Write a sequence for this structure.
């Protein structure tokens, strides 16, 4: 996968040193051979080893710079004795050798201090920074000996040609679409410094309340603690910091100082998590934002899609207010149309535009006789809109399902919200039809969500689909004809296929059919002549790195770019877009900075190693689970179901976190 | 309860105990530098690493709870070598100034360097230029600092000021005032007490003496009714003056915290005491003709007993309005609570998860109660409701709910609390509470009925309740009724009551002396105003 001169990573050693280039073996990892489109990398060094692409790179200087980064990047460190002094000693000794004043006893000291750091450091930076250094000294002993025996500086020691670009990461941070500094906010909980915790979260994520409650937490799938016992309850710990700020009525705790206005303006279309996140970070940089929202409430799909028993209105409003607190303005009840957009651009009203309008058109289930105008046919988005606009804001009629049967087709978070809201509307019977099996629905949503729905008496019919929608003599929805499927293993070893089971069809009588099988983006408001490039699933296409669309000055982030996805994904895209836009309005340049480039490289390399054997920690400690409200107490109301961690649970869980910070560095 | 083994011995861990705590309890030595029992484990020194047969690598015993059946080894050649290395690292570039450092003789760095036999070391690194910091009464020398973080943990978790923090910077890490250019805190000086080396020193004490020259006298503080244990360290005043002076105050910092009054306010001790027989005789004659001895509560139990004996023998009135009010208050309290005394103490308070405080400006009225409140929040995330005519922003990081009531409306406030939280009182009591006009009480006290019902709702999942009552209630004109309501709450609700006595020994005086309502004509003032004054500055008329 990567062409390397030499590499050692996760135990795989590729040594092409004495071979001509054509005969080089490839390394099995996606190293960043090309740093950026116009720049190749010379070497890459990280927590598990290193890779050399250019055989002329100065390896001694590379490890010296790597040790220096440990000091430079120590906003994450300095909190344990071996790390703090050990790291400094590593650098001083390596620099001594690199500049030609070293001795062989220095190598011995390096090995000794490396061992101490590896055994006793507090976090993974201390434990892993020595790893590639020790390996490099071993594999490239000749270069080090040369500097020592001949008392000469290493070949590039005095040269400024190569840039050494470092980035701190962690397996969980890497997996998170928003690259949240998870070990830092967990440490804030552990140290009982909740203001520090929420500050750490808000470096990249302004909605700590929301993502501490309704995230599918992909980070937990990359939690290194899983290798030892169970993943840390990362999501649950996020709300501790923001709950503290809210409950004690503090002024907003900003991660950094809000800059004074610089006289630039950005228009943001849509006030969902993506739009609001961008508004916050652009505002921090002193850029004026106008957030246009077509609904009468702010907050996008989290406000009108996610119900308040999962995401309480009071807390979400706090997140929304926080996002606007950096100086942005929100304009409600305003659907931006093509004329307005043209005006934004042509009359220089705005220096840049961000489209964050989400995906709000429910797709059809594609059954026979499907007519969206049939009474009883209720697309999920409309159903949830009404439910939440009534319950949260009093702006719609309440839904009463007493005595009714509601069938939902889906299997994602939206469908879960639909059926559990239906419970709270007093429905007599609620059925969820899902194409796949129980294991998959848990993977697509979450264990908690599925089980809470089951407790609330939602009936799940797995491996089913609607063949026909049947109406009565008046044209109202009467029943559904259902097909059942089973998985047939492919005799050739390929992917299992879903095959219809003959003779297993049955009918369900119902009053409402709510399709929740994904959504399409509503992009009709865009000027046709802009001819924005689209993806094959009809969302706005961007490069996934700068998030600019095919039209200069117009960005897209969130569901309208990616397709229906999670809140954290929208926030992550918006954060990146906001940073790129911020640089663009100030300098005219459209590019990622080094931090962002390295972030993307690491994502490609994959930081989490599920086969790694974790040492230095005692396994067998259980994962804490927060208490949920009993079914009978929650079925008929919208009180928050999850009580969150108690102090004891939170601290126990935070104590299990191994603070897996890693440093990666590219020599370019 | 978890059964496991330390060095081959079978031991049992209680719920929540770490390996280190069990080891210390069962007599197995594990060295530590940054561990402080009264705060949560800091994990920065790494000295407490142990080996576990069932686990690879070294395990940090201060923050790891044991799992069943593991075999822990607290010492081995490998562990000793790593601990030596850590001590060598701590000693790197540590200024060799034991001869003049104020911590010398009681310094953890000295102790551990000796313990781990560090006679030389071959680690070096570039030194840094760091300037001394002068923070009012506290001086910080970053060159001596080993970044054990005991000071910041204490300030945050034990005290609640959260006034200092770690400035991260790897090797350049240091301690700085938080959110401020200058140190802005309550100056309790506990950071000085917990510092294991000479980095944090009291400005007063710096450069005055060596630790081993001081005579240590255990005593207790007289500034407030917490009467915290402390230790006066004394030595002769100067070369020419052989009288002892107090050089500094120390406390049992591992488990308790001492406020700035106790630590820095020690310069009122009697000095240059002499005997004057003629003045003494005048005092005796005056006393024979007096009809009242007026006194305050800053006296010992022994003195109180002597005054009581004088009263019993000679019929002289004893006048101490502070203790009298407290006496009446606790008597009325007992009438309805059915107990001699209130049931909560500082331990109960620090272990609570639901606390209401009424009528006390705790931050300055009684720091020991305030520290217990901090701990209740930090350890249990207690829901704390602070009821007082004024909010206190100093407590905002610990208090979630400020309820401002009208000055003087404490009786109504207690009645509102009683009606909300008492539900299994006797028939009479329930009738009394039901008959109260809640709307009127709410309007007069400015405490909304929704505020009270919200408080009640927040308490539904709590387990340990404490009600703290301050001196505003004791000196209230309706103190008796307030006390009875408090007694009802003590007896018929989940709350344990803690009554904060106003003065140092108000409690002692109230228990020992028969106090009179009014003063007489011929008043001898014992440390207070009177027709004739007996005090430490010499008897005078």
């Amino acid at each position: 996968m990567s062409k390397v001169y030499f590499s050692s990573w996760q135990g795989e050693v590729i040594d092409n040193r004495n071979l001509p280039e054509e005969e080089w073996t490839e390394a099995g990892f996606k190293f960043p051979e090309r740093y950026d489109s116009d720049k190749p990398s010379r070497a890459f060094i990280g927590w598990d080893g290193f890779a050399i692409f250019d055989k002329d790179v100065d390896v001694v200087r590379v490890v010296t710079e790597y040790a220096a980064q440990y000091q430079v990047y120590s906003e994450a460190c300095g909190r344990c004795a071996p790390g703090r002094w050990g790291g400094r000693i590593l650098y001083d000794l390596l620099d001594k050798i690199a500049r030609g004043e070293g001795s062989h006893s220095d190598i011995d000291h390096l090995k000794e201090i490396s061992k101490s750091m590896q055994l006793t450091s507090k976090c993974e930076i201390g434990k892993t920074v020595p790893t590639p250094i020790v390996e490099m000294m071993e594999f490239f002993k000749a270069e080090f000996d040369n500097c020592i025996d001949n008392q000469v500086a290493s070949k590039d020691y005095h040269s400024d040609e190569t840039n050494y670009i470092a980035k701190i990461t962690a397996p969980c941070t890497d997996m998170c679409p928003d690259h949240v500094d998870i070990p830092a906010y967990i440490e804030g909980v552990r140290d009982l410094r909740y203001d520090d915790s929420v500050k750490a979260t808000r470096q990249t994520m302004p909605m700590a309340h929301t993502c501490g409650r309704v995230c599918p937490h992909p980070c937990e799938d990359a939690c290194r603690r899983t290798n030892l016992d169970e993943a840390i309850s990362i999501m649950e710990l996020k709300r501790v910091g923001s709950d503290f700020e809210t409950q004690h009525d503090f002024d907003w705790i900003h991660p950094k100082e809000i800059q004074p206005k610089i006289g630039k303006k950005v228009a943001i279309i849509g006030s969902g998590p993506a739009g609001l996140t961008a508004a916050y970070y652009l505002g921090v940089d002193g850029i004026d934002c106008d957030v246009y929202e077509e609904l009468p409430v702010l907050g996008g799909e989290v406000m009108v899609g996610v119900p308040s028993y999962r995401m309480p209105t009071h807390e979400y409003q706090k997140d929304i207010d926080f996002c606007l607190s950096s100086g942005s303005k929100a304009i409600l009840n305003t659907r931006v149309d093509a004329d307005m957009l043209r005006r934004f651009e042509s009359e220089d009203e705005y220096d840049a535009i961000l489209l964050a309008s989400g995906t709000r058109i429910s797709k059809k289930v594609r059954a026979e006789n499907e007519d969206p105008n049939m009474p009883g046919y209720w697309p999920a988005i409309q159903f949830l809109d009404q439910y939440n606009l009534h319950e949260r804001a009093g702006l719609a009629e309440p839904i009463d399902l007493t005595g009714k049967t509601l069938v939902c087709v889906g299997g994602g978070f939206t469908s879960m919200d639909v059926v559990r809201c239906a419970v709270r509307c007093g429905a007599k019977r609620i059925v969820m039809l899902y194409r796949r099996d129980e294991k998959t629905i848990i993977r697509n949503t979450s264990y908690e969500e599925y089980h809470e729905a089951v407790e609330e008496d939602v009936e799940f019919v797995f491996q089913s689909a609607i063949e026909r929608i049947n109406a009565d003599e008046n044209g109202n929805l009467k029943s559904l004809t259902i097909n059942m499927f089973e998985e047939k293993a492919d005799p050739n070893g390929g992917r299992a296929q879903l095959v219809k089971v003959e003779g297993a069809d049955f009918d369900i009588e119902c009053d409402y059919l709510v399709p929740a099988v994904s959504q399409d983006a509503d992009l009709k408001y865009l000027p046709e002549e802009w001819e924005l490039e689209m993806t094959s699933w009809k969302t706005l296409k961007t490069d996934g790195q700068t998030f600019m669309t095919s039209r200069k000055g117009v960005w897209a982030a969130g569901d309208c770019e990616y397709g229906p996805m999670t809140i954290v994904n929208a926030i992550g895209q918006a954060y990146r877009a906001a940073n790129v836009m911020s640089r663009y309005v100030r300098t005219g340049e459209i590019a990622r900075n080094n931090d962002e480039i390295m972030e993307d490289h690491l994502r490609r390399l994959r930081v989490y190693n599920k086969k790694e054997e974790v040492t230095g920690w005692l396994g067998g400690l259980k994962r804490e689970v927060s208490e949920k409200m009993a079914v009978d107490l929650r079925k008929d109301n919208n009180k928050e179901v999850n009580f969150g961690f108690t102090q004891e649970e939170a601290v126990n869980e935070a104590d299990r976190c191994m603070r897996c910070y890693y440093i990666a560095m590219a020599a370019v | 309860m978890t059964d496991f083994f330390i060095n081959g011995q079978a031991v049992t861990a209680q719920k929540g105990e770490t390996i280190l705590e069990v080891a210390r309890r069962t007599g197995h030595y594990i060295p530590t530098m940054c561990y402080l029992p009264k705060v949560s484990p800091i994990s920065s020194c790494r000295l407490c690493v142990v080996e576990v047969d069932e686990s690879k690598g070294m395990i940090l015993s201060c923050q790891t709870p044991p799992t069943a059946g593991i075999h822990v080894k607290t010492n081995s050649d490998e562990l000793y070598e790593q601990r030596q290395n850590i001590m060598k690292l701590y000693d790197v570039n540590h200024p060799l100034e034991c001869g003049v450092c104020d911590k010398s003789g009681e310094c953890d760095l000295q102790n551990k360097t000796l313990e781990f036999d560090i006679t030389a070391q071959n680690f070096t690194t570039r030194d840094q230029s760091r300037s001394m910091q002068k923070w009012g009464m506290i001086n910080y020398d970053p060159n001596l600092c080993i970044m054990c973080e005991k000071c910041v943990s204490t300030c945050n978790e034990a005290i609640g000021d959260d006034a200092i923090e770690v400035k991260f910077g790897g090797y350049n890490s240091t301690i700085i005032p938080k959110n401020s250019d200058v140190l802005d805190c309550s100056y309790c000086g506990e950071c000085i007490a917990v510092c294991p080396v000479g980095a944090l020193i009291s400005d007063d004490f710096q450069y005055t003496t060596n630790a081993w020259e001081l005579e240590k006298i255990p005593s207790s503080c007289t500034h407030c009714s917490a009467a915290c244990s402390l230790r006066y360290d004394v030595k002769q005043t100067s070369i020419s003056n052989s009288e002892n002076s107090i050089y500094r105050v120390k406390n049992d910092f591992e488990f308790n915290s001492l406020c700035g009054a106790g630590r820095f306010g020690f310069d009122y001790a009697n000095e240059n005491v002499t005997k004057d027989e003629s003045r003494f005789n005048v005092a005796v004659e005056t006393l024979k003709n007096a009809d009242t001895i007026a006194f305050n509560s800053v006296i010992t139990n022994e003195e109180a007993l002597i005054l009581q004996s004088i009263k019993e023998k000679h019929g002289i009135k004893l006048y101490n309005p502070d203790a009298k009010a407290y006496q009446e208050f606790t008597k009325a309290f007992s009438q309805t609570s059915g107990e001699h005394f209130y049931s909560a103490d500082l331990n109960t308070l620090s272990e609570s998860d639901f606390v209401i405080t009424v009528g006390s400006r705790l931050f300055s009225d009684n720091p020991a109660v305030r520290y217990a409140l901090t701990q209740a929040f930090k350890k249990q995330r207690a829901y704390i409701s602070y009821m007082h005519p004024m909010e206190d922003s100093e407590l905002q990081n610990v208090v979630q709910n400020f309820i401002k009531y009208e000055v003087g409306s404490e009786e109504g406030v207690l009645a509102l609390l009683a009606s909300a939280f008492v539900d299994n009182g006797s028939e009479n009591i329930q009738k009394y509470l039901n008959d109260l006009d809640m709307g009127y009480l709410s309007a007069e006290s400015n405490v909304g009925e929704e505020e009270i019902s919200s408080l009640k709702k927040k308490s539904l999942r709590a387990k340990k309740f404490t009600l703290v009552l301050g001196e505003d209630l004791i000196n209230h004109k309706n103190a008796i009724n307030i006390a009875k309501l408090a007694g009802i709450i003590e007896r018929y609700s989940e709350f344990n009551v803690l009554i904060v006595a106003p003065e140092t020994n108000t409690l002692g005086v109230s228990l020992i002396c028969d106090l009179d309502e009014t003063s007489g004509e011929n008043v001898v003032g014992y440390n207070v105003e009177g027709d004739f004054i007996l005090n430490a500055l010499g008897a005078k008329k």
Chain B touches chain A through 54 residues (CB under 8 Å). Chain B is about 35% helix and 20% strand. The radius of gyration of chain B is 28 Å.
